Amino acid sequence: MTKSGLAVVGIAEVPTRRDPERTRWDILLDVCMGAINDAGIDKNLIGAVISNNPMAQPSMQNDMSLGKIPEVMGLKGCRDIAICNAGGASTTNCLRLAEQHIASGQVDFVLIPHTTVQSDMPPQDLINFFATAPLDKQFEYPYGVSFNGSMGLITQRYMYETGATEEELASVTVALRAWGALDPLSIFYGKTVTLEDVMNSRMISTPLKAKECNLLADGGGAMVVTSWEKAKAFGDKAVYKLGHGTRFMSATPMLREDVFHRQSYRESSQDALAQAGLSIHDMDLRQIYGAYPYTQCSALEGYGVCEDGQGAKLWAEGRCGPGGDLPCTTMGDATGRGHTGSGVSMAFYLDTIRQLRGEAGERQVKNCEHAILTTSGGSVMNTCTTVFGRAPR
Amino acid sequence: MSEYKKPLPEIQPYSQPFWDGTRENKLLVQHCNACDTNIFYPRRDCPECWSQDLGWIEASGRAIVYTYSVTYEGVEEKFVEDLPIILAWIDLPEGIRMHTNLVECEPEDVRIGMEVEVVYRPVTEEITLPFFRPVSTS
Ligand SMILES: [Zn+2]
After folding, report:
1. How distant is the alpha carbon of residue A391 from its chain centre?
2. Cα separations in angstroms, A140 against A255, B29, B57, B79
3. pLDDT for B72-82, tens place per residue?
4. pLDDT for the residue B138
5. A146 and B75 in contact by Cβ < 8 A?
6. How far apart are CA A228 and CA A120, in angstroms?
7. Gap between the Cα atoms of A329 and A186, Å rounded
8. Given pLDDT bands bounded at 50, 70 and 90, which one contains residue A1?
9. Residue A181: half-sphere exposure toward Cβ, Cα within 13 Å
10. Does residue B70 sit at the A interface (CB-CB below 8 Å)?
């Protein structure tokens, strides 16, 4: 039996910025048309549109759920539309649903778009959204917890158990910002930070400092996906999904036994790598969407790149940032790119595809053949790990 | 009692006894009579065995700090007057972990592993929130 699967053949993205003049629909149309043009296919070959849910934007959510995209764009071959919402992991689920359409043989190409504008929302509303949507409204929210506070709790325990220092964790942000500084799509393009900058930034929720917390921004991206067979005609443009694994932990952070998600990273990556027939040591790039520095450490531990508790050391030694021998998270994570709600995961997939195509500019990982990518939703309720490669296996 | 502007817990029918308990200065933990599990947060059905034969046990009110975080900014306006807020996850000997605030102590005095005890603060006629403070060693 020949294996088959999903391949990405077209991508487009707008720069992450705070710019209320740039509307949600402007971003959406630019990235949808951009991805279809990048693939070089006729728009009417798009057989389905599976959208990433635009969190906290109810009007846009209605438009995208209820079919406005194929109608506005005149996608005459579109047979089905849907929206996927798993918070930050939404794009992962868009890909999985698209895979089902492709596997049916009834649809050749699926369009997966995302758009987010947060710069037109009052900051208080955004704090409220991130404090209530992924946290418990009965037993957490009345205690003045913010999303940063919730992640501060986990980070403090991570330091206690592993002995990682505040400086070592701050080095994660230095590296993520260094990647972002090299990326024209980052809100921090050209803006590196030093260890002192991170350590001296305002304390938000101990041990997390301002530069370690996320700047909410606007952005959007889109992918066109097809089958492995059809992707062959697209040559080097095609990037192949080789394996996937997911683990769910809990909705509410305080109930999570796997506090640092280490076991969840371990099991989801083992599933994905087994499906791909590859080992973690075959990966040229590790992309981790956790939005807070400790995840960049515990994921490397879960993947088996290092021993449990040693992740922060790898970052502090400069091995994961630009020029390091273990390049990680060239996308910059939300810390180094700007946080676009559920769209951070879209930006992660697009950056991974650029790396595998050899189109990552100054951030390009040399000879990037295989990459592993983990996204998470909610308050890190899950880890969704995917292996991509330049060729089908 | 002056008007309380901060968010109140969204109470569900099956968690009402917990909040009736705190009003009477009792910390109640939901208990499954079928499989002997202590449950937090309260549910309609036991998450282990789906039994609806659920009761309540009274906790000792003591706990150990599993982790904490001192928040200095980035909260909603209604919480600003409380800053800095000491968030904590605490482990009860009854086998459950709760989210709370540590009170009656300074941020620099908080340690992971320190022993704390419940203190009840009525915030409205109906609602008393359980907070925790260090157990005095004197
Ligand atoms: Zn039970």
Report:
1. 22
2. 11, 16, 22, 13
3. 999 989 999 99
4. 55
5. yes
6. 40
7. 13
8. very low
9. 13
10. yes
Binary contact (A142, B129; C-beta < 8 A)? yes
Residue A82: strand pairing partners: A50
Q: Does some domain include residue A151?
A: no
Q: Tell me the CATH number at A83.
A: 3.40.47.10
Q: How many CA atoms lie within 13 A of A4 on its CB side?
A: 14
ipTM above 0.90, yes or no: yes
The CATH class of the B61-138 domain is: mainly beta
Residue A172 lies in a domain: no
Structural domains of chain A, count: 1
Q: Is residue A93 part of a domain?
A: yes
pLDDT one-digit tens code per residue, A338-373: 999 999 999 999 999 999 999 999 999 999 999 999
Question: Which residue ranges make up each domain of chain B?
Answer: 11-58, 61-138
Q: Closest partner residue to B71 among A146, A155, A160, by Cβ?
A: A146
- Protein residues near ligand 1, an ion, with CB under 5 A: B 32, 34-35, 37, 46, 48-49, 51
Q: Does A124 touch chain B (CB under 8 A)?
A: yes
Q: Chain A contacts of B8, Cβ < 8 Å?
A: 142
Closest to A6 (Cα-Cα) out of A76, A79, A104, A72: A104
The residue among B75, B83, B103 with the most chain A CBs within 10 A of its CB, best to mutate, is B75
State residue B119 phi and psi, 5-degree precision: -135, 135
- Parent domain of A227: 6-120+218-234
Q: What is the pLDDT of residue B12?
A: 92
C-alpha B59 – ligand 1 centre gap (Å): 18
In a domain, residue A153? The reply is no
Shortest CA gap A208–chain B (Å): 9
Say yes or no for a CB contact (<8 Å) between B99 and A140.
yes
**What's the pLDDT at A2?**
56
Angstrom CA distances, B75 to A122, A170, B6, B83, B85, stand at 13, 22, 11, 9, 10
- Note the pLDDT of residue A130: 81
Of chain A, the percentage scoring pLDDT greater than 90 comes to 93
pTM for the whole structure: 0.96
CA–CA gap between residue A96 and residue A136 (Å, rounded): 28
Average pLDDT, 10 consecutive residues per value, chain B (138 residues): 85 96 98 98 97 98 98 93 97 97 97 98 96 86
